[in-house]
């Protein structure tokens, strides 16, 4: 027996390569603007619209054009962090300790007296946050006109220790407007909140939109593990409007706010042509214009097929029941 064991150990020692783990190779990714990249994007959308359930964490930040550079406690800051989930019937979440469930345009919130029907506020009085609707969002992305659905950039990455392809879309004109107003993205953070059109009379000029989207899709099965987007809302009403706290030099900013010196003292703010900005983690690195409000939104998806909605009482179930 000892001779046999010694022989086996000698054989193992003589073949060290057999004990090394298999060499991993980087996943092969399609070229940007190729049919293969477009097919990968459509596969990701189809996978997400078919997902039976999942969990999400979202982060949203707003850079309001009107308040940019004022150092006010609104219009930016730490943003909103939300955790929740979805299935083929409900969406749900918890914000600042307040739980809520959404279905068919209705919302119930958990209170000390059970689940109650609410409109726009949680049990704590906090305004209800924007909640991702995966089936709506990815259905709208899949339905973009082919000319706007081009994947303009592809890179490799990792999310949740899984290999992903990061697919970048850049939307403008009617495609961006349709998506921005379609209800699947957080919008509406611009100057309209001050009802400027009503103040000055006349018809309000039309807002325009541009949207950058980064889809982090798993190489192995097409699940979207992360989505990052920047929505730019350009409001012409802000062209001749200034909102200032204090005098010049006290955070109000002057007429030359758009001109910024680089680290070497050069005026480099407009050195990069629109559409040619470097892409970082799937999103073009560009700053919003003077009249543009920018909304940054990131969503991480996980726990596919395993997420479970909160247990509702009879009242909550009744309010969310399909008519």
Give the SSE string: HHEEEEEEHEEHHEEEEEH
The helicity comes to 10-25%
Cα-atom Rg, whole angstroms? 25 Å
Distance between the termini: 76 Å
- Sequence stretches where pLDDT stays below 50 over 5 or more residues: 1-21, 190-199, 247-268
Major beta sheet, specifics?
Answer: 11 strands, antiparallel
Q: How many DSSP H or I helices?
A: 6
Secondary-structure class? alpha+beta
Averaging pLDDT over every residue, what do you get? 83
**Structural shape:** globular
Strand content: 25-35%
Q: Strands across the major sheet, in which order? A: 6-5-4-3-2-1-13-10-9-8-7
Total strands: 13
How would you describe the overall organization of this protein?
Mean pLDDT is 83; it is low at 1-21, 190-199 and 247-268. It contains six helices and 13 strands. Strand 11 and strand 12 form a beta hairpin. With 323 residues, it is an alpha+beta fold. Helix 2 (35-49) packs antiparallel against helix 3. 17% of the residues lie in helices and 29% in strands. The strands form two sheets. It has an eleven-stranded antiparallel β-sheet with strand order 6-5-4-3-2-1-13-10-9-8-7. It has a two-stranded antiparallel ribbon with strand order 11-12. The chain has a domain at 53-78 and 132-245 and 274-306.
């Amino acid at each position: 027996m000892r001779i046999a064991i010694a022989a086996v150990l000698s054989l193992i020692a003589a073949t060290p390569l057999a004990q090394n783990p298999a060499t991993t190779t980087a996943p092969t990714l399609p070229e940007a603007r190729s049919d293969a990249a477009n097919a990968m994007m459509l596969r990701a959308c189809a996978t997400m619209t078919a997902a039976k359930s999942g969990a999400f964490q979202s982060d949203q930040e707003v850079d309001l054009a009107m308040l940019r550079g004022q150092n006010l406690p609104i219009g930016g800051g730490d943003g909103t962090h939300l955790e929740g989930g979805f299935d083929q019937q409900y969406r749900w979440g918890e914000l600042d300790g307040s739980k809520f469930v959404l279905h068919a345009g209705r919302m119930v919130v958990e209170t000390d007296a059970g689940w109650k029907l609410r409109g726009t506020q949680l049990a704590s009085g906090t305004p209800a946050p924007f909640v991702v609707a995966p089936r709506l969002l990815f259905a709208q992305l899949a339905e973009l006109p082919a000319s706007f659905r081009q994947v303009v950039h592809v890179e490799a990455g990792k999310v949740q220790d899984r290999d992903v392809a990061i697919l970048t879309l850049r939307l403008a004109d009617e495609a961006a407007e349709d998506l921005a107003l379609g209800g699947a993205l957080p919008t509406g953070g611009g100057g309209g909140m001050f009802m400027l059109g009503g103040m000055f009379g006349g018809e309000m000029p039309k807002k325009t939109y541009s949207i950058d989207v980064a889809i982090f899709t798993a190489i192995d099965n097409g699940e979207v593990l992360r989505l990052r987007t920047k929505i730019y809302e350009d409001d012409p009403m802000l062209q001749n409007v200034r909102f200032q706290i204090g005098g010049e030099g006290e955070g109000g900013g002057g007429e030359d706010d758009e001109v910024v010196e680089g680290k070497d003292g050069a005026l480099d703010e407009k050195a990069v042509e629109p559409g040619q900005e470097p892409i970082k983690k799937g999103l073009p690195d560009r700053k919003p214009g003077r009249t543009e409000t920018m909304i940054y939104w990131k969503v991480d998806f996980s726990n596919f097929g395993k997420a479970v909605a909160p247990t509702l009482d009879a009242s909550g179930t009744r309010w969310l029941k399909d008519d």
